[in-house]
Amino acid sequence: MTQFASSRPAIALAMQPSRTQHVLPEALLQRLDTVGRVLDVAPMQNFNDARAAKLLAETEILVTGWGSPTIDAAVLAQAPRLKLVAHSAGTVKGLLGDSLFDRGIVVSHAAQANALPVAEFTLAAIIFAGKKVFRFRDFYVADRDRKRTVPMQAEAIGNYGRTVGIIGASRIGRRVIELLSPFDYRILLYDPMVGSAEAAQMGVEKTELDTLMASADIVSLHAPSLPATHHMIDAGRLSLMKEGATFINTARGALVDEAALIAALKTGRIDAIIDVTDPEIPEAASAFYDLPNVFLTPHIAGAVGLERTRLGEMAVDEVIRFVDGKPLLYEIRREDMARMA
Known about the structure:
Elements: E1 10-14, H1 26-35, E2 37-38, H2 50-58, E3 61-64, H3 73-78, E4 84-87, H4 98-102, E5 106-108, H5 111-130, H6 133-143, H7 149-152, E6 163-167, H8 171-180, E7 186-190, H9 196-202, E8 205-206, H10 209-215, E9 218-221, H11 235-239, E10 246-249, H12 258-266, E11 271-274, E12 294-296, H13 308-323, E13 331-332
Parallel strand pairs: 1-2, 1-3, 3-4, 4-5, 6-7, 6-9, 7-8, 9-10, 10-11, 11-12
Antiparallel strand pairs: 5-13
C-alpha cells in the first residue's frame, strides 16, 4: 500500500523566490508534477497566513530552499500529512528542529550539489594563488608596462611542485582534492576524522594542523563551523605560515580570528583569498576591502545563477526516490545535525 493519500502525493514549495531563481525552472517543476501534485508553483514565504494553512493541511512532501521559514512544532501541527522535507540547498540548521525528527519525517538536502561550485572556485583560487595572478594584475595595471612583472616571472612562483594544505575532508574538501589530483601538487590534509589509510587512498598526506600551516604554500579551509572549530585559525597558526603563502577561506568566517588574519595580512607576509567573513558583510571600514594582498568576494563560491539548478535537480531526484520507495542518497538524520556546518 502506498504511504501517501493517493498515487500522486501533494507537493508544496517553501523558499524565497528572490534568493532561489533557477533552482526550480519550469522543466523541474514539470518533473515534480509527474510524480506528485504540485499544489502551487508559487512557493510559501511564510507559514502564518490563510494560503499557507490551506497548503500545509494537504502537503505530503515539502520542497524547501534558501529563505524558507522555520519548520517548528507549530508548523508541523498544521501539516499532519507531511512525510518528506527535501531541502534544495545545503545546511538545514536553523530550518528545522527535533520536533520534525520526533514525528519521523524524512529530511534530505542538496549540500553535495552546492559543494561542486565551491570546489571549482577553490581550484581556480589555488591556481591563481600559486601563479600570483592578482599581484601580476595589479602591477601591470598600475605601471602600464612590464618593468615589475617580467622580473617576477623568475621568482619561485607557479604551480609545479607546490604544497597545498587542505583543512577538512568535508564534501567540498574531498572534491577539491579530487580536482587537484591531475596537477603536480603535494597535498597535505588535516582532518582528525580521517585515518592514515584513508588519506593514502585519497592521495594525500595526513598531518597535524600546525604542521600543515607551516608547510603549505597555499592553505585552503573546508571545515564545518562548530563550537569546537570557532577561531581554529588564530594568530599562532597564522604566524606559522610561510613568507609569501596564501590563505583561502571558502568555508565560514567564524573559523578564523579575523583580527589576527588582518594583522598578519598588514605585514605583507602572506596573501589571502576570502569569500566568507564574520559578520557576513564586513564593516565598511574593514581592512579586507583595502589591503592589496587580499582578494575579497561576496560569498559567491557556492551556487549562483545557473549553478543553482543543480540544487533543484538533486532535491527533485530525492523526491522521486522517496515516492518510488527507494533509499534516499542524501538523507539527514538527527545525529547528523551536530556535525553539520
